[in-house]
């Protein structure tokens, strides 16, 4: 039994209400993950595998030892960036499905700067390649923003089309002007980046992961502690009200898409400089799409994105181990991810299961009309 | 007096369209005179490439006319292509395989309707769920090396198929391509000349008014989205059973999204979408011709992005000129 005096003391009450608030914000994603894992287990049984064995292998491969944890962090890094990119655009009411294409451009430009510039010290070269990748992503992200503002073309379709265009352009570059001409190489890929452009590891922790957490902090600060962030969130809540309040809605839309693209481009650059070491077509596929799941799972909050990305990163890191020791095809993690997305988005179902009422503004909505800007 | 007014009206309504058609006709006849074989091949390929796009657009417009945005067409097609392919592998019966594909599409439509009508979820997210789910499921259950007994073959329609050019293009096609041409007419008729179509459009424009006069908004939306899903499923079956004859990962290649642009370009009418799809199909056919004709030296990646660039251009140029159904994208709440 709790002492009523302690219970009524204000400090304790605040502590309790903070706990309650944290529970409110994580209960839905948590339940969604559990439900998805449950249905995943049913699918595993249906295809003749043991879910316990599979999930145990998945866990061992992602958190089993220091090396596995390092791998999870490594896999989570680009996902944090792409999740931030999608979540950031959400705040302005924009759905950036094009994180994929922006990430590809970031990756290939970082690779180009990484292999082509010689004689720079690492302290200049690595950041330079990162900035180049970020700028490429930002420019590519600004295109759908401008199309939305000036022509009304909905960003959902234009960003998807731009993804396909990005795949074609990067393929062309990696197979043409920027191709690795080392004797014996026949595949489409760029040369390896110079050691001075590489992003190192501290022990098992990739420096890129630290950068991604820093990026989350910057996004949080930008959104909730600057005028631009206030404008972005106001446009997201009600663009007409933002317009009447004298905000530059058109400019905000373009800027948001550019910054979103910048985050995705950074993700591509970090992946190139920290993990892959070059640009090779097909190596970065799906990272951008995962960003959608991660952003929604993280409730479109920059600090929610980090645990969400860690979860998905862990699934990616452990899936090889699962395939190897439990004989389950890796792609089951894709199915589980889709299920997570479904349950997070359909939070009505989840709330019904955990008997919780929705608070206002909990659900993400976009303007679904094609024509309006 | 009366007749001249009619001519003016007719010109205003159909002048541009007829102009385009006449120019297209002249170019086709000219190209045919120069090189009959290539021209016939390009036009036949145009019609077939347009098939999944028209079907996707029909799926999209049925949903949107009743007020539901469907960006999950891509996923509906992909999963239907996969299930249709599996059915054909295990039963060897292509008709059954097509039915399995359509059923899959319809079930995905049911899921979309459940999410957007019953759960009142954001429809864009609902469609994205379907897309990601389809990629995951097809990836997980896909096993390399499965082969079918063959694919759907062209059925020449007797003497009609021997008419030079147009006969060969229109009357010598595999079944789903024929079915598509019929479906365009049927959907057009249903949407604009039947009570069901009127109710569908009413629900898309003003659901509460429709509700007041006794139309069940939920039923109309459910049925339209499910039928749309079945049509998208037919598009998936077209890809795996008629065009390719096997299944490949991600084989839809964005066609579901291109279909949305086709739908907008066609102003959400079946006939308009058919015309728009022919334009996109022509771009794809031209792309194939350029790639393998070897006439011009362009890196294949640049030719490969033509349909996607065209989609963006169409969207940027035309989207402002179509009028969205008023209740598009909004869940309906009964009072």
Describe the structure.
The complex is a heterodimer of chains A (373) and B (335). In chain A, strand 1 (201-202) and strand 2 (205-206) form a beta hairpin. Chain A is globular and about 60 Å long. Chain A has helices at 4-8, 10-46, 51-63, 66-91, 99-116, 122-151, 155-175, 207-225, 227-237, 239-244, 249-276, 287-297, 302-326, 332-345, 347-354; strands spanning 201-202, 205-206. Chain A has one domain (50-354): ABC transporter involved in vitamin B12 uptake, BtuC. Chain A has a two-stranded antiparallel sheet with strand order 1-2. Chain A is built from 15 helices and 2 strands. Chain B is mostly helical. Chain B has one domain. Helix content of chain B is 74%, strand content 1%. In chain B, strands 1-2 form a two-stranded antiparallel ribbon. In chain B, helix 2 crosses helix 11. Chain B starts with a helix and ends in a 17-residue tail after the last helix. Chains A and B meet through helix 7, helix 12 and helix 14 of A and helix 5, helix 11, helix 13 and helix 14 of B.
Strand order of the largest sheet of chain A: 1-2
Q: Approximately what portion of the residues of chain A adopt beta-strand conformation?
A: under 5%
**Which class of secondary structure composition applies to the elements of chain B?**
mainly alpha
Largest sheet of chain B: 2 strands, antiparallel
The helix fraction of chain A, in percent, is over 70%
The value of Rg of chain B in angstroms is 21 Å
For the largest interface, the chains and their residue counts are:
A-B, 51 and 49 residues
Indicate the radius of gyration of chain A in whole angstroms: 22 Å
Number of domain modules of chain A: 1
- Overall geometry of chain A: globular
Please give a handful of descriptors for the protein shown.
heterodimer; A: 373 residues; mainly alpha; ABC transporter involved in vitamin B12 uptake, BtuC; two-stranded antiparallel sheet; 15 helices; globular; disordered N terminus; B: 335 residues; two-stranded antiparallel ribbon
């Amino acid at each position: 039994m709790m002492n009523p005096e302690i219970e009524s003391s204000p400090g304790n009450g605040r502590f309790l209400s903070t706990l309650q608030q944290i529970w409110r914000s994580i209960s839905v994603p948590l339940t969604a993950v559990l439900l998805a894992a449950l249905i995943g287990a049913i699918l595993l049984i249906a295809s003749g595998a043991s879910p316990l064995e599979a999930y145990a292998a998945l866990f061992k491969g992602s958190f089993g030892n220091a090396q596995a944890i390092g791998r999870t962090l490594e896999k989570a890094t680009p996902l944090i960036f792409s999740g931030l990119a999608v979540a950031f655009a959400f705040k302005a009411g924009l759905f950036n499905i094009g994180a994929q294409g922006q990430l590809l451009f970031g990756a290939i430009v970082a690779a180009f700067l990484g292999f082509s510039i010689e004689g720079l010290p690492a302290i200049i070269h690595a950041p330079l390649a990162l900035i180049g990748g970020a700028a490429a992503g930002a420019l590519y992200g600004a295109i759908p923003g401008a199309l939305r503002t000036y022509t009304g073309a909905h960003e959902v379709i234009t960003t998807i089309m731009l993804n396909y265009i990005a795949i074609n352009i990067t393929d062309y570059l990696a197979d043409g002007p920027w191709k690795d001409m080392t004797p014996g190489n026949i595949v489409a890929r760029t040369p390896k980046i110079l050691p001075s452009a590489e992003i190192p590891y501290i022990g098992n922790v990739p420096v890129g992961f630290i950068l991604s957490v820093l990026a989350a902090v910057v996004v949080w600060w930008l959104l909730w502690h600057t005028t631009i962030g206030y404008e972005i969130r106001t446009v997201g809540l009600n663009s007409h009200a933002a317009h009447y309040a004298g905000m530059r809605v058109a400019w905000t839309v373009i800027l948001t898409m550019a910054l979103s693209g910048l985050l995705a481009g950074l993700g591509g650059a970090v992946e190139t400089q920290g993990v892959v070491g070059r640009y090779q077509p097909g190596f970065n596929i799906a990272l951008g799409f995962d960003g959608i799941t991660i952003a929604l799972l993280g409730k479109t909050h920059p600090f929610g994105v980090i645990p969400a990305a860690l979860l998905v990163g862990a699934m990616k890191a452990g899936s090889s181990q699962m395939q190897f020791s439990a004989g389950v095809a890796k792609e089951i993690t894709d199915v589980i991810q889709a299920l997570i997305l479904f349950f997070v988005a359909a939070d009505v179902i989840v709330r019904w299961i955990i008997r919780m009422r929705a608070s206002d503004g909990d659900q993400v909505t976009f303007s679904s009309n094609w024509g309006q800007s | 007096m009366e007749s001249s007014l009619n001519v003016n009206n007719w010109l205003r309504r159909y002048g541009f369209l007829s102009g385009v058609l006449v120019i297209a006709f002249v170019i086709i006849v000219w190209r045919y005179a120069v090189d009959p074989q290539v021209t016939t091949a390009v036009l036949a390929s145009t019609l077939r490439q347009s098939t999944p796009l028209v079907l996707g657009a029909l799926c999209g417009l049925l949903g949107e006319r009743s007020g539901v945005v469907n960006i999950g067409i891509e996923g509906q097609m992909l999963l239907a292509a996969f299930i249709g392919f599996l059915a054909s592998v295990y039963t060897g019966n292509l008709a059954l395989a097509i039915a399995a594909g359509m059923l899959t599409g319809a079930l995905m439509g049911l899921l979309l309707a459940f999410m957007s009508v019953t759960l009142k979820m954001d429809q864009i997210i609902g469609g994205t769920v379907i897309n990601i789910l389809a990629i995951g499921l097809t990836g997980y259950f896909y096993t390399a090396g499965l082969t079918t007994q063959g694919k759907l073959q062209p059925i020449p329609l007797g003497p009609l198929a021997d008419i030079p050019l147009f006969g060969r293009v229109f009357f010598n096609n595999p079944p789903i391509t024929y079915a598509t041409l019929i479906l365009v007419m049927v959907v057009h008729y249903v949407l604009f000349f039947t009570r069901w179509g009127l109710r569908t459009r009413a629900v898309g424009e003003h659901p509460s008014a429709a509700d007041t006069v006794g139309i069940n908004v939920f039923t109309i939306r459910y049925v339209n989205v499910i039928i749309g899903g079945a049509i998208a499923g037919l598009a998936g079956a077209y890809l795996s059973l008629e065009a390719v004859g096997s299944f490949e990962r991600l084989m839809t290649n964005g066609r579901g999204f291109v279909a949305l642009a086709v739908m907008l370009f066609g102003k959400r009418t079946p006939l308009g979408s058919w015309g728009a799809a022919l334009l996109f199909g022509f771009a794809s056919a031209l792309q194939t011709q350029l790639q393998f004709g070897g006439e011009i030296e362009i890196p294949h990646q640049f030719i490969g992005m033509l349909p996607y660039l065209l989609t963006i251009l169409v969207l940027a140029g035309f989207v402002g000129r179509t009028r969205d159904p008023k209740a598009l994208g909004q869940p309906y709440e009964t009072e």
